[in-house]
Amino acid sequence: MKKRAFLIIILLLAGFKGVLLLKQHAGSLIHSGVSGAPSVNQGTRADQAEYRTEAGAGAGSSGVQQAGNQPTAGESGEAAGKQALTLSEKQLYKGDLILVNQEHKLHKDGVMPDIVRLSKHPELLNGYGLLDNSIELSASVTEQFSRMVEAARKDGVDHFLISSGYRDFDKQDELYNQMGSDSALPAGYSEHNSGKSLDIGSTEQQMSKAPEGKWLKKNAWKYGFILRYPEDKTAITGIKYEPWHFRYVGLPHSAVMQEKNFTLEEYLDYIKEQQQIKVNVEGTDYEILYIPAAQKKVQIPNNRGYTVSGDNSNGYIVTLTM
Ligand SMILES: [Zn+2]
């Protein structure tokens, strides 16, 4: 009897120690999951090995041990291959997907940092004309536009013209005062103020009829551009049909928008609702995450390319290349 009681006490103590260890390690795992630096994750892996050994020796029934092991192993396994991405408030107002419309004013941080006067950059002027020499645009957006124009030329469509690009707030105000609210937007509410949008014309005929307009409508998404104000979406965009106005949003977003026939407004609503979508565009897998502004941090896999864009309002879109 005495021996049995002694054994029970030993077992109880061993079990108690196991529970204590479980609690300690669960705490450290959760902590490292939050801080998330790769070095901390490596530490977690070492902790976990130690935990397994000790818990194996100290825990009571196998049922308890399994219950303790499963979530921690899964959690640390994920944390080990991930890094914490901290999102700043500034990022909320810039990036490929910022929404600029009558309700969402462009933030100063949302203006592309690489605005250039195109007539002074012959290396960017490949196979298209400029309505006038003062036209400015983001150099990186222009590079994508040039790639697009080159592809169109291979299809025999080669009368492109840029009729408008970047406008600073002063220029937008001037235009608004000249044209009125039916044809122009006040400063800060036009996508042209960001440097990501341009008006594309044909030197031959109106864009609604020109081969250039038709080609772009079908193919612009492949180069990251979208027809921003389609004919059947005026109720959503609040802007009349503009077959000439294209906006750069980048891949894979332009592909999803084309496939689902979404405007930028609809696409952002969709991502926000889904929170996470996976897409394959021309052989590349992407994962698109919506992160509410208040969250400010997200765990993303290590060794994956990613981009961050704000929605210019209350969330971030993180795009991972898988
Ligand atoms: Zn425009």
Automatic annotation (TrEMBL):
Region (Disordered): 56-81
CDD domains attached to this UniProt entry: LD-carboxypeptidase (cd14852)
Gene Ontology MF term list: peptidase activity
Gene3D superfamilies: 3.30.1380.10, 3.30.200.180
Pfam families in the record: VanY
GO biological process: proteolysis
InterPro entries in alphabetical order: DD-CPase-like (IPR052179), VanY-like_core_dom (IPR003709), VanY/YodJ_core_dom (IPR058193), Zn_M74/Hedgehog-like (IPR009045)
Ranges where the D-alanyl-D-alanine carboxypeptidase-like core domain occurs: 135-250
PANTHER family: D-ALANYL-D-ALANINE CARBOXYPEPTIDASE (PTHR34385), PEPTIDOGLYCAN L-ALANYL-D-GLUTAMATE ENDOPEPTIDASE CWLK (PTHR34385:SF1)
Protein name in UniProt: D-alanyl-D-alanine carboxypeptidase-like core domain-containing protein
Species in which this protein is naturally found: Paenibacillus yonginensis
